[in-house]
UniProtKB/TrEMBL annotation:
This is Ferredoxin. It comes from the Bacteria. The keyword Electron transport applies. Its cofactor is [4Fe-4S] cluster; [3Fe-4S] cluster.
Amino acid sequence: MTYIVTDPCVKCKLMDCVEVCPVDCFYEGENFLVINPDECIDCGVCEPECPVDAIKPQSEDEADGRWLKVNTAYSRVWPNINVRGRPLADSDAYRGQADKFNRFFSEAPGDGS
Ligand code: SF4
Ligand code: SF4
């Protein structure tokens, strides 16, 4: 089992989550973060750190495993991040919006750390 990052993270990237992970398994895209499911030790420490409840246990994934697929795919190609970076300047404007992944998700990698 693993934890997964889900829709509320898109265009947020507050990154309260990355510094608490004991195994440094967060990976950074341009406007989204993912967890590498093969590296996550299922400790749950990151879940309460996320102010927008974007981090969920795999058991709360959508029925088709959508978020596990997204986290798996992009953690293979994006750079690792374990130091909190700067949040996106417009993150507050997008907080709470629905279906952000379909509308705004970028496949571009982030800068990593
Ligand atoms: S704290 Fe939550 S919304 Fe912010 S980068 Fe981490 S998972 Fe994404
Ligand atoms: S559950 Fe633990 S190991 Fe997995 S991403 Fe969160 S902090 Fe890292």
